[in-house]
Amino acid sequence: MSRLGDLIRTERLRQKMTPKQVARKCGVSESYIMAVEAGTRIIADDQARRILRAIGLKQQTEADFTLDDIAATVDLAQVQPRMAEAVKPKPDAVKVASTREEKDEGVAGSVWLDALKSVLKNVPVMNAVMQPVDHKLLPILEGRIEGAAPDKVFYFKVPDDSMRGFRIHQGDLALIVPAQSPIDGAVMLIDRDGHRNLRKVKKLDATTVLLQAYNREYEAENLQLNEVTFLGRVARVEFEP
Predict the structure, then answer these.
(1) Using CA atoms, how far apart are residues 137 and 75, in angstroms rounded to an integer?
(2) Measured between alpha carbons, how far is 144 from 55 in angstroms, rounded to an integer?
(3) Nearest 5°: phi and psi at 17?
(4) 82: which DSSP letter?
(5) How confident is the model at residue 91, as a pLDDT?
(6) Which of 7, 5, 10, 14 is nearest to 36 (CA)?
(7) How far apart are CA 25 and CA 56, in angstroms?
(8) Given 116, 146, 170, which residue is the final one in a domain?
């Protein structure tokens, strides 16, 4: 089963709908819905949203989650046990919501989205002046992202080609984890005189570092530690096509 198919089936079952009922609402065949859930049929994002809306899921209203982000990044096998526990009826529970209220609940009341909050983080994409320009969803593993607290990591959108010799190009997204001291051999995000960029670091001694760049030719600069601020280490780079 695909992640998107798993997501659709989970939400359909939560709404207590059959594949035939969903198919009628979407104007497709029952076999079409079953193939999507089984992961044997690839569908466009707009059709996925149409199906999810048909089973009670409306336009996202929480944390800017998009359906394609969720389908691409969430391992639903991790969250389904929590979802099963969440939807298990309590012995003394009394149903007080009307049918209309349940229908209008939308994303904010969706059990699966509540479960996702503990396994996903909306990580900001920052530009060269450290202003957010976008976001990306990343999985949280054992409470961490790349070994760091989820609220401390961010993406840095590479502003130029000064690191192209290290296979980092303008527009690429570098995932930054906190590091305030130089790490020998690491590519790090630095701040020098208010200008932020990536540089490969070599520690020369306790007070001096070599900052390396490579655009059309190799460049290196010796600096005292008090001349540069280290903002973080590049954990990985997502290359733009």
Answers:
(1) 12
(2) 33
(3) -115, 150
(4) H
(5) 52
(6) 5
(7) 11
(8) 116
Q: Where does residue 195 rank: exposed (0-12), middle (13-18), buried (19+ CB within 10 A)?
A: exposed
Phi, psi for 188 (deg, rounded to 5): -130, 155
79: left (phi over 0), alpha (psi -120 to 50) or beta: alpha
Token pair of 204 as six digits: 């020369």
- Pair of tokens at residue 215: 């655009």
My answer on whether 70 and 40 are in the same domain is yes
Contact criterion met (CB below 8 Å) for 11 and 114: no
Q: How many CB atoms lie within 10 A of CB 32?
A: 18
Nearest-CA neighbor of 198 among 226, 222, 238, 233? Answer: 233
pLDDT digits (tens, 9 = 90+) for 51-89: 888 887 654 433 444 554 444 444 444 444 544 454 444
**Whether 157 contacts 206, CB under 8 Å:** no
Of all residues in the chain, what percent carry a pLDDT higher than 90?
A: 41
Q: What is the DSSP letter of 141?
A: B
| pLDDT attached to residue 99 | 42
pLDDT band at 132 (very low <50, low <70, confident <90, very high): very high
Map tokens 């906190």 to a residue. Answer: 178
Q: The CATH number of the domain where 219 resides is what?
A: 2.10.109.10
Q: Which domain holds residue 21?
A: 3-116
Sheet of 195-203, strands arranged across? 132-139, 120-126, 154-157, 173-178, 229-238, 187-192, 195-203, 208-214, 218-224
Provide the whole-model pTM: 0.56
Greatest Cα pair distance, the chain, in angstroms, is 72
Q: Which two tokens stand for residue 196?
A: 């932020």
